[in-house]
Amino acid sequence: MRNRLHIAILLFAGLSLFAACRHDGTQQNKKKGFGSKQRDLIALYDMADSVYHFKGRADTALFERFIRKAVDFAQNYPKDELAPDMLYRAGVGSMILAKSAPDRDHTAQYAKQAIEIFNTYQSLFPDGEKAEFCYYQRGIIYDDILGDTRSAESEYRDYINRNPGDSISIQLEQYIKFLGKTEEEIAKEMGIE
Question: Model pTM?
Answer without folding.
Answer: 0.81
